[in-house]
Amino acid sequence: MIREVITYPDKRLKLASKDIEKFDEELHSLLDDMYETMTAKNGIGLAAIQVAVPLNTLLILLPDENDEQKKEDLIEVINPKIVEKKGSIVYQEGCLSVPDYYDDVERAEWIRVEYFDRFGNKIVKECDGLLAVAFQHEMDHLKGHLFIEKLSYLKRKKFEKEWKKKQRAKK
Ligand code: QAP
Ligand code: CO
Questions:
Q1: What are the start-end ranges of the E strands in the chain?
Q2: Average pLDDT of 108-130?
Q3: Mean pLDDT in the chain?
Q4: Rounded to 5 degrees, what angle do the CA atoms 89, 91, 95 make?
Q5: DSSP summary character for residue 144
Q6: pTM score, two decimals?
Q7: Whose Cα sits closest to atom 10 in ligand 1?
Q8: Residue 111: how many CB atoms within 10 A of its CB?
Q9: E strands, 12-165, where?
Q10: Is the pLDDT assigned to residue 105 strictly greater than 90?
């Protein structure tokens, strides 16, 4: 089932998500719905809070070298923790909850992350480049943060100006 993606400035996006305790059918249907929703909306990452569920889970599905998103490349992430990070990378980010706005954000270039898969198996993964960016972007959602909060003062003003303009155009 495709769920509604909530967008800025919905206050629920500021909630701190809680750890998942049961790796049960309810979790599996949440993950399945998140996958359907993310692919239907052409996303490469989605946190549960973006479908209004304040739980520590997220998905990442980067396109391959042929620019295709393959379900076998789907990464399902539960209760993640970044245990090490290094370097820095600037990437032009977007977000399904901040539609039609993209801007440069600086993050760690390499991370080691620990999390669980949908069956409760513990995973330790090292990521760099775009995958590291995606993990950090999605994990910020779990803490109630959006990428626009990381912009410089002037770029944040630019975002607000564009957002207000878009609101006027909608009405
Ligand atoms: C987060 O972002 C991310 O405005 C995932 O009209 C961003 O999937 C990970 C999207 C950068 C790594 C690098 C945004 C789709 C999707 C839009 C997304 C839009 C349609 C954003
Ligand atoms: Co996002």
A1: 45-47, 57-60, 75-86, 89-93, 103-107, 110-116, 122-128
A2: 98
A3: 98
A4: 135
A5: T
A6: 0.98
A7: 96
A8: 23
A9: 45-47, 57-60, 75-86, 89-93, 103-107, 110-116, 122-128
A10: yes
Q: Quick check: 171 pLDDT over 90?
A: no
Distance 94 CA to ligand 1 centre (A): 4
Q: What is the pLDDT of residues 75-103, one digit of tens each?
A: 999 999 999 999 999 999 999 999 999 99
Of the residues 5, 35, 89, 95, which should be mutated to test ligand 1's pocket, given the most ligand atoms within 8 Å of the CB?
Answer: 95
Ligand 1 geometric centre to CA of 117 (Å): 23
pLDDT of residue 132: 99
12's tokens: 């629920």
- In this structure, which CATH number among 3.30.479.20, 3.20.20.140, 1.10.10.10, 3.90.45.10 belongs to the domain 11-170? 3.90.45.10
Nearest to 146 by CA among 4, 44, 9, 31: 9
pLDDT tens digits for 41-61? 999 999 999 999 999 999 999
Q: Is the CB of 94 under 6 A from ligand 1?
A: yes
